[in-house]
């Protein structure tokens, strides 16, 4: 049959194969046979049978040169040659049969043909070798049809004879069939043979459930099987510990006749000009039909659990690098690697309304096992992505997303799918009520575990201490809340320089600008403390901070917890020195006004406009206040600015004024300078009647107007003994000082005219640009006390009202695996922004001991970095990768989608670091965990709770 029948033309071949393909559509069933054929030969055959359409014009009419017999006519392909799919020198062990190359990819190296198609092509062309493969049930539901291109390759070790053999066997075969084959290969009496999961020269699990399939028994590619011949005594201990296990070894190609067969038929109808593209289309459809189950194969001689494990890439399905990087970090978390490679199915919670009926956990476990199988080519995570999109539509499609958001959803979803608590009890939290923190924390944790108990909680969850303080009644509420990861703020600098102008209310010093350094993420109390230290604030004084806008006081910054980040660089701040003891008092605000004239020929008056900086002085409400009292207070506030050469304004000790002014102008230490007026005005209450009557006569009356409670202006230049009625509804008394040109000649008002900006904007120094930010600084900023945002105010149980309480977080209980998210991205209604700040994070000896509030825990809290995700580029067009340390090798690798390459440890740190994964450094009394294996060989410290 080697010669093609002469009556069969290329066109007839094409139509015949197309009809066979259509007939086979929707008829594939378990147990059918498919055949591998090399992509190279298939492409050549497609071009041959489509050449008649090479010169067909767009309107469908045939070209005059159609098959004119020129040299352009393609010859019929030679016989089928699949030799490029197999090893040239196959093993002499006949039980292994013909071995395919380990790195073949469907659609690139080969395609799969139904048996009828193969039979027809083989009848026409003959050749070989013939490579049949069976259709099996696969997938999570075991209802998907898949071609098992790479059956399990198992290494049989016969003991005590120390012989070995390699066999190929379908993962759908049972343990009984494996047992039978082993007995046949070594010519053994089945009654005397037991088979074991064998690893590192040790027996692990006795394979005695004869009806269980190898797939259900979690047998992996290249697994070692011990064939033990006993002396007739079948007794023996059974170790139930399973190191291996996979639900799907990734050695299958999913078959969907409606897609793959149709694609074959469709490719036959393509024109010659597009036949190569058509074949690519065929390859793509077949790859799609595989539902992400890549052709991944074990390599001979590679240890099942050795260094080759885990070095498997993930194909980028179209902007899925955000997902790939997060998945790689999770699957290389040793506790998860071990858990999902063991029998975790019994813990799947299908009844949890907060979960995904177990499907997300199954899809993740299936993907993890594929990534941990040895010697594999990159995996396309399509089944996992499909499940993810089903339960989290925000991740559907092929747009770029935030890797940390995906990670948060995935970890939470896995927890709910694997929650060992099937019926969550209702537990009402109790208030601390002064009880010891240790007692309250343990109570909260016990309540949490009563409702949430999974491998995720075992490994990743820690506990905060959260303290809320009511700003009104000072009620303190302490709770202890679980956390899955830490999201740390990221600022480009840890400190900030701020300039504030300091004013005195007693005339003891001229206004002076003071620049201090404060924490960039600090509070107003930090600024006030720094200013007080710089200007030598006395023990009986305090600073009243105010923001000045338009020559008026915009707001008093009285709340010490106001964030400094809310103060912009171009704002103007004033700090007023006032006595601490100001009970039952109001603040007199002196607003300066200047007469403005219209520029032009007439130069007519326009009116009085605010100018300069308001001055503030406390005023007691206990005594009767007269107009003369206010005149004295204002005189005292303005006295440092009085020009000494002007004799029209009486002022005692003018020489002292000049000295004080000079000292104040030099530095902020002028708060202790001598007063510019006599001691009776400075040391005594200026509102006393004798002062009002005896001293005001020596001072020229200032053009002042007081705004009363009806918003009417009262002239304070007349009726100095008349009392002033203070508004009961306002804490401020507004007084306008109208500065005429004559008055301006007597006072040097330049000290109040222009306030400096809070931060003078300019190019950052090179040191500031390159100074790294410590991870410890980020953590400290995260744990710093801060007020709640207005939309998240706290209901105070004492006040019975919602309050903007201050909140302080402390770490109380740390997890085995600590995940830290660096908040590089900020979002607003108008824009998205990324911080490119380099964070200096420790790789070894990340010491959190001093940050844990539970001081009864004497254990040192040391962590070591083992994985991280990176984000490169901008918001929309960025790219994610992962750096991961294989603990067995003690070596770092870069996971860039499907490409994996070793990197040096010093290259792990970069400004692209986004999510960090730390493992607790084990102490001697803890089992050390290495890539999913309990190195002590003892009990799994994270085993399921029954």
From TrEMBL:
Biased composition (Polar residues): 929-946
InterPro entries in alphabetical order: DUSP-like_sf, Papain-like_cys_pep_sf, Pept_C19_DUSP, Peptidase_C19_UCH, Ub_carboxyl-term_hydrolase, Ubiquitin-like_domsf, Ubiquitin_UBP8/5, USP
Transmembrane segments: none
Domain USP: 312-921
Region feature (Disordered): 57-76, 927-946
Residues annotated as domain DUSP: 8-136
UniProt GO BP: protein deubiquitination; proteolysis
Keyword list, A-Z: Hydrolase, Protease, Thiol protease, Ubl conjugation pathway
Listed Pfam families: DUSP (PF06337), Ubiquitin_UBP8 (PF25242), UCH (PF00443)
GO terms, molecular function: cysteine-type deubiquitinase activity
EC number: 3.4.19.12
Substrates-to-products reaction catalysed: Thiol-dependent hydrolysis of ester, thioester, amide, peptide and isopeptide bonds formed by the C-terminal Gly of ubiquitin (a 76-residue protein attached to proteins as an intracellular targeting signal)
UniProt keyword Lyase, yes or no: no
PANTHER family in the cross-refs: UBIQUITIN CARBOXYL-TERMINAL HYDROLASE, UBIQUITIN CARBOXYL-TERMINAL HYDROLASE 5
Family stated for the protein in its record: Belongs to the peptidase C19 family.
Cited function: Recognizes and hydrolyzes the peptide bond at the C-terminal Gly of ubiquitin. Involved in the processing of poly-ubiquitin precursors as well as that of ubiquitinated proteins.
Protein name per the record: Ubiquitin carboxyl-terminal hydrolase
């Amino acid at each position: 049959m080697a010669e093609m029948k002469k009556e069969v033309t290329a066109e007839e071949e094409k139509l015949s194969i197309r009809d066979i393909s259509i007939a086979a559509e929707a008829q594939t069933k378990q147990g059918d046979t498919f055949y591998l054929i090399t992509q190279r030969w298939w492409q050549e055959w497609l071009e041959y049978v489509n050449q008649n359409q090479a010169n067909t014009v767009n309107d469908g009419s045939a070209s005059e040169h159609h098959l004119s017999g020129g040299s352009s006519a393609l010859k019929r392909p030679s016989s089928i040659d699949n030799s490029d799919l197999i090893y040239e020198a196959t093993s002499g062990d006949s039980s292994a049969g013909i071995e395919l190359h380990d790195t073949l990819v469907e659609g690139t190296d080969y395609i799969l043909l139904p048996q009828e198609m193969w039979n027809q092509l083989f009848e026409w062309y003959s050749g070989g070798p013939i490579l049949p493969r069976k259709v099996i049930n696969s997938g999570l539901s075991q209802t998907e049809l898949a071609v098992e291109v790479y059956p399990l390759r198992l290494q049989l070790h016969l003991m005590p004879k120390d012989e070995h053999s390699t066999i190929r066997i379908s993962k759908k075969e049972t343990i009984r069939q494996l047992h039978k084959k082993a007995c046949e290969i070594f010519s053994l009496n089945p009654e005397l043979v037991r088979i074991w999961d064998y690893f590192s020269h040790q027996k692990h699990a006795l394979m005695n459930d004869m009806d269980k399939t190898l797939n259900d028994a979690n047998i992996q590619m290249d697994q070692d099987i011990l064939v033990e011949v006993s002396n007739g005594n079948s007794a023996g201990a059974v170790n139930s510990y399973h190191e291996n296990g996979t639900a799907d070894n990734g050695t299958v190609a999913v078959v969907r006749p409606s897609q793959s067969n149709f694609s074959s038929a469709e490719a036959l109808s393509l024109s010659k000009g597009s036949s190569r593209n058509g074949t690519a289309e065929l390859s793509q459809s077949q790859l799609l039909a595989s539902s992400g189950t890549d052709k991944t194969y074990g390599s001979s001689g590679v240890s099942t659990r050795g260094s080759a494990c885990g070095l498997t890439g993930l194909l980028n399905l179209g902007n899925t690098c955000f997902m790939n990087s997060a998945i790689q970090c999770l699957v290389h978390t040793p506790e998860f690697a071990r858990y999902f490679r063991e029998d975790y199915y019994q813990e799947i919670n299908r009844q949890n309304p907060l979960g995904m009926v177990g499907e997300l956990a199954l899809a993740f476990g299936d993907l993890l096992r594929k990534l941990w199988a040895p010697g594999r080519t990159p995996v396309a995570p399509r089944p996992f992505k499909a499940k993810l999109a089903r339960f989290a539509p925000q991740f559907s499609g092929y747009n770029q997303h935030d890797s940390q958001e995906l990670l948060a959803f995935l970890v939470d979803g896995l927890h709910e799918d694997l929650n060992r608590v099937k019926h969550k009890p209702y537990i009402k939290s109790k208030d601390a009520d002064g009880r010891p923190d240790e007692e309250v924390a343990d109570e909260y944790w016990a309540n949490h575990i009563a409702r949430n108990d999974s491998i995720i909680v075992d490994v990743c969850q820690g506990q905060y201490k959260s303290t809320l303080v009511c700003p009104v009644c000072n009620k303190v509420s302490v709770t202890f809340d679980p956390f899955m990861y830490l999201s740390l703020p990221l600022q480009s600098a840890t400190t900030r320089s701020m300039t504030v102008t300091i004013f005195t209310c007693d005339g003891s010093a001229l206004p002076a600008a003071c620049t201090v350094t404060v924490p960039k993420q600090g509070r107003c109390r930090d600024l006030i403390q720094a200013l007080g230290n710089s200007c030598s604030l006395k023990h009986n004084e305090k600073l009243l901070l105010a923001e000045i806008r338009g020559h008026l006081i915009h707001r008093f910054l009285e709340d010490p917890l106001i964030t400094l980040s809310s103060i912009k660089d171009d704002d103007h701040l004033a700090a007023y020195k006032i006595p601490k003891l100001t009970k039952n008092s109001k603040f007199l605000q002196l607003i300066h006004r200047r007469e403005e004239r219209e520029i032009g020929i007439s130069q007519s008056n326009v009116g009085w406009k605010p100018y300069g900086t308001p001055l503030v002085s406390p005023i007691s409400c206990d005594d009767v206040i007269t107009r003369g009292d206010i005149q004295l207070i204002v005189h005292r506030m303005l006295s440092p600015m009085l020009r000494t050469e002007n004799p029209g304004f009486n002022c005692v000790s003018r020489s002292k004024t000049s000295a004080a002014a000079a000292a104040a102008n030099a530095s902020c230490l002028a708060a202790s300078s001598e007063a510019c007026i006599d001691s009776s005005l400075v040391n005594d209450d200026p509102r006393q009647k004798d002062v009002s009557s005896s001293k005001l006569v020596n001072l020229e009356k200032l053009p002042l107007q007081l705004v009363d409670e009806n918003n009417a202006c009262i002239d304070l230049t007349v009726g100095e003994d008349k009392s002033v009625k203070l508004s009961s509804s306002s804490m401020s008394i507004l007084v306008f000082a109208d500065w005429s040109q004559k008055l301006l000649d007597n006072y040097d008002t330049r000290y109040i005219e222009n306030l400096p900006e809070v931060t003078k904007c300019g190019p950052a120094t090179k040191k500031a640009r390159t100074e790294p930010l410590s991870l410890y600084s980020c953590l400290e900023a995260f744990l710093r006390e801060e007020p709640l945002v207005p939309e998240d105010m706290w209901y105070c149980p004492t006040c019975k009202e919602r309050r903007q309480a201050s909140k302080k977080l402390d770490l109380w209980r740390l997890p085995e695996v600590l995940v830290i998210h660096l908040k590089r991205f900020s979002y607003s209604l108008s824009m998205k922004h990324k911080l490119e700040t380099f964070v200096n994070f420790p790789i070894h000896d990340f010491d959190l001991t001093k940050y844990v509030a539970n001081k009864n825990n004497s254990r040192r809290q040391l962590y070591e970095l083992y994985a991280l995700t990176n984000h490169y580029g901008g918001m929309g067009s960025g790219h994610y990768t992962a750096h991961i340390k294989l603990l067995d090798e003690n070596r770092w690798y870069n996971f860039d989608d499907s490409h994996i390459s070793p990197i040096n440890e010093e290259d792990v740190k970069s400004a692209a670091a986004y999510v960090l994964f730390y493992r607790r450094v084990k102490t001697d009394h803890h089992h050390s965990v290495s890539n999913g294996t309990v190195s002590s060989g003892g009990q799994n410290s994270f085993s399921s709770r029954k």
